[in-house]
Specification:
The complex is a heterodimer of chains A (644) and B (204). In chain A, 65% of the residues lie in helices and 2% in strands. Chain A has helices at 2-7, 12-21, 27-32, 37-66, 76-111, 119-141, 166-194, 207-238, 252-286, 293-306, 322-334, 336-352, 359-381, 384-390, 394-424, 430-456, 473-503, 541-544, 584-599, 604-621, 625-636; strands spanning 551-553, 561-565, 572-577. Chain B has helices spanning 21-50, 65-89, 93-119, 129-161, 166-199, and one strand spanning 5-7. In chain B, helix 1 (21-50) packs antiparallel against helix 4 (129-161), helix 2 packs antiparallel against helix 3 (93-119) and helix 4 (129-161) packs antiparallel against helix 5 (166-199). Chain B is mainly α and 204 residues long. The chains are: A mainly alpha (644), B mainly alpha (204). At the A-B interface, helix 1, helix 7, helix 8, helix 9 and strand 1 of A face strand 1, helix 1 and helix 4 of B. Strand 1 (551-553) of chain A pairs parallel with strand 1 (5-7) of chain B, so a sheet runs across the interface.
Amino acid sequence: MTELTVDQPDFSRERALLEKTWAKNPGIAGWLSETGHKSIGLRYIVTAFCFFALGGVEAALMRWQLSRPDNHFLNPDLYNQIFTVHGSTMMFLFAVPVMLGMGIYFVPLMVGTRNVPFPKLNAYGYFVYVAGGLFLYAMFFIGAGPDAGWFSYVPLSGPTFDPGKRADTWAQMITFTEFSALIVAVEITVCAFKMRAPGMSLNRIPLFVWSMIMVSFMVMFAMPAVMLDSTYLIFDRAFSMHFFNRPEGGDPIFFQHMFWFFGHPEVYIIFIPGLGFTSSIITAFTQRKIFGYVAMVSTLVITAFLGFSVWAHHMFATGIPQLGTSFFTAASLMIVIPTGVQIFCWTATMWSGRVRIKTPMMYVFGFFITFIIGGLTGVMLGSVPIDWQVHDTFFVVAHLHYVLIGGAVFPLFGAFHFWFPKWTGRMYSEALGQLSFWLLLVGFNVTFFPMHLLGLYGMPRRVYTYGAQTGWGPMNALASMGAALIALSILTMLINFAMYRRRGPLAGPNPWNADTLEWSLPSPPPSYNFLHIPTVAGMNAVWDAAPDQPYVTGIRFDKREILVTKTLDAEPDHKHEIPGHSLAPFLLAVTSTVGLIGSIFYGWWFTAGMLLSVPILVYWFWPKREEVEEQLARDRGIVMAEEA
Amino acid sequence: MARRVLDVSALEADTADSRALLWWGNLGMMAIEGTIFAMLIATYLYLRMVNLDWPPSTVRDPDILWPAINLGILLLTFIPALILDRAALHDNVPLCKLALAACIVTGAAFFTIQFTVLANLGYKWSDHAYGSVVWTAIGYHMLHVITATGETALLFIYSLVRPIVKKQLLDFRCTAVYWYFVILMWLPFYFIVFVEPYVTRKGY
């Protein structure tokens, strides 16, 4: 040991250089111009969690309203706004951004690089997302919140039945959030395909990264549909176009086709990262290589593909042709196969190892239970006769919450506990963690299981109250009590994190002895991630590393330089300097916001926003003089006259 | 104790080809925008499917001359774009500048003429669903041509005032590829708006 430490080179100079190169700027301007992937990723996660809390408050208000018959705590109009904003918040402002935020934070760490490929664009995506969320809530608080459901079907959301700016608010919020999701998708794809540490060939990519790659592809091909759909809606409303106006040749059902062509992949966009978290957690807590890696990756790909061919099962009640329903039923039921393979692979992994039961692992078990129940009701809903029977009832509400909370929120909370030591350098309280888990598991089932029965008894969705003679009162009261338990669980989790963030026992770099590269770094990771870009010798990078696993040298420490590698086998290809801080993303987000929000009032604001963006884009792309001089010397061996 | 290391100091810094990160980012952007184009075409075909009278009988057969000339101009842009692409690959900066200028001229000519094509369609976006989808499709494509022209103009101005290094050569090539994309995307729309009514006019 002693010889080793004596001879081990001292990297303090390199470390100091890296710290200087990757330092954050101080102050508000520094915050606004920050482009590090960990900062942006954490911002996504924290912001999305704030929106989750707001969506939770809305859910609580609805549960309070429904807790007894003939309740007039909320009026019908406010109730409409609240369920619309609740759904829109949870889907567009919480679920997708929080998953993509986890990707932005962890994908560069797991593939062994220093930042995302286009850091300024990444920062821009975050600001646009925040602007969209604030816009929705600003309109909600002044009483103009959208009120036609989170999917805002026409004709209800069309110009005839929804005057004012409510539906426009919804539609433009979509533009903001999908913009940001599309940006993140490109960042993650390019990062995972071109910036992996040498040795991390395609068949050694961690499963979480694979899940984010598949999600990114789904985002790229699904989100444009809803952006275009909501744009058509704005056009119909603002410019008297007729995309959805039947008398002039449009078709309201087309809105639903476009919406669900996005909407069903959206569900997978939300839960496929959950599959990634689950694989990471199971690997760490069983200390085993995942069983059936190739099968796992293939099923991720298959699920992503199938996700695009099932959208019309949301539209069985619209009277689409019978042959069509048969096709979509078959396609929907096929999803069971890849999902089943995944669950069997996880089970086999756990079978072969000794499972350590800690909070993250408990959340994974919670995911199995609730997601399987949600999956089974999904199979039921995939069958047309049942779907017709329970369409627009609380059965569907129960199903979608089992799938989304079971498939996404349980693994996400497991992931929060799993990576808490990495983020903060401290351990959370295991007791509080387990308490929050049990509260969530019990609270969730008490809230949502009765909704299955309420749906079968005929209680429709989206009605603000019901008569006592329906007999739905007791079960609704039960569901509302469950909601209180869910709130308590989340409060417990937040208290746990807040208390132990600074005071918890020190975690060290790898408290779980987990296998992916972020665990080879100090907790929390330094701004530059890796002192040296690592190399990878196997599927589980940390476990498979040789004692003297080579690291990469020849990457500059005084520049934000990264290594670009080849797509298939990650052999070193070339070096590339990525940009640092810039205020341009924030400024561009401001002009985009002005253009997009203005355009729902007057169309010319869109043009104004674009024109305002031109000087900022020039500022964004125009390189600094010293950069040009250096590149000139490097590429052409020319030194500029005044320096020579 | 000596450590084994993987020394990459001999690798080149930046490339101006398909290995570059920006190249991949550009592909991602085109995948997204291409999806939107595909959705627009799907919109047209869907609305065509649900309407017996398509294009609506009030719509006269489209003019042939200017749209055809404009198609020619857009296809012509392919030549300077290709030259830009190749010249950037071979580091021929003067030729790049010439090609950039040519792209700006043809691009600007295209969208200027396109304004008159829109004005001469004979129907408005608010007349019927057919008008809505045609105006949206043409408008969306024009937005791309205007963006591509603006981007090309910015690079051209830059090339006049600052020296060109590998980074800009990559920008040139990505712009050229973007032009290919913009040109190709017009072909299905051209067929739908200006050819299809002659081939299969429903309701006749």
